[in-house]
Amino acid sequence: MSHVSPSPSEYNSSLVGNASTNGTEPENESKLLTSPLIILMSFMCLLIVSENGLIIFLMYRKKILRTLTNMFLTSLALSDLTSGLARMPLLFICMEMDVSIIVCVASTVFNRFTAISSVCHVLLIAADRYIFIVHDMKYRAFVTKRRAVVATIAVWLISILASVVQLSWYIFHGLEIGDRNALMDDLNKQYGFACIVLFFAGPFLLIFYIYGRIFYISYKLNQNDRKRIRTYNYKQPSGSLRHEWRGRSVLLITLIIFGGCWLPYFFTVLHDHMSSSEDSTIPIWSQRLQICLGFIPMMLNPILCTLAKKDFRHALKEIVIGRNSLRHFNQDISLQTTRERFRTIDSESERN
After folding, report:
1. How far apart are CA 15 and CA 296, in angstroms?
2. Rounded to the nearest 5°, which phi and psi values hold at 12?
3. CA 94 remoteness from chain centre
4. Could you tell me the pTM of the whole model?
5. What are phi and psi of 213, to 5 degrees?
6. For residue 291, what pLDDT is reported?
């Protein structure tokens, strides 16, 4: 089967077959999608759809949430929601049913699209946070509505084009999907290498730098706060320490999930395109693990990127509890924004 179709690393349908003819190999060892794995994936998809659907619902119901930053988060939620709705059904149909190779190609392209889209959205959100924290006073001038819309559309276009560009080589050269020759093998190797560089290594290094910088600035600001508290003999609120460690934990968990979940996927894409054989050398258990890891970012993105924000938590609480706490919510947000701006001004004056 072609590298465009689901390959060993990308859920090759040839791996889903009957047990060996001699009957000595257990079925669950030769079959990629076992019943427990299907149940687990179905549960994960249900969580993905529920969580990301909730984010989109909150944005629809609460106009106060419709900020530029939250627009990026909603775009990520829409991407993850699409993945939860279509990724598992396409994979199951390709693996378990006797269907055309086009369905399996669509499954592979869609898997690749959701991976690239998730990576690009997380990078865009990290860049937005970096500008807000490091260049706080210039944020509104730099991050305009027009630029935010253009950036969001660009993420979707890049994700779509990067996912389907491989098909254009077969169309341009007049080859059937499934045909292999030296030219296609060379192009596929270059494509696999470009994927891991452009959509994993590059974004991971940028996100590591951005969150490292944010972590450092947060540490310096909190250090300055402690100095002022000691100078004026104030008592530091216990909640500020919890908020500080919670923010650092979110940044650390985001980096771990990004690296731990997407590295196996892009590594297997590279492995598939660098391999000269159509037979997979990756163990079945490793492929099953990689499938599950691919669902984890879509499941945790709503919690780490969106529901960890105070405005979304207040909006959710208001809908669930049914209390009209909008006035108190606006006061909290206003006080929090004012406090952050004064801390930024103090840090800038100290640096100067």
Report:
1. 23
2. -60, 125
3. 24
4. 0.79
5. -65, -45
6. 87
Q: What is the pLDDT of residue 20?
A: 32
Residue 349 is encoded by which pair of tokens?
């004056």
Q: Are 19 and 26 in contact (CB under 8 A)?
A: yes
Paired tokens of 174 = 């007049």
Half-sphere exposure of 160 (CA within 13 A, CB side): 7
With b for 16 or more beta-carbon neighbours within 10 A and e for fewer, the 171-186 pattern comes to eeeeeebeeeeeebee
Angle, vertex CA 333, rays to CA 332 and CA 336, nearest 5: 85
Are 226 and 236 within 8 A, CB to CB?
yes
Mean pLDDT across 50-58: 94
pLDDT of 118 above 70: yes
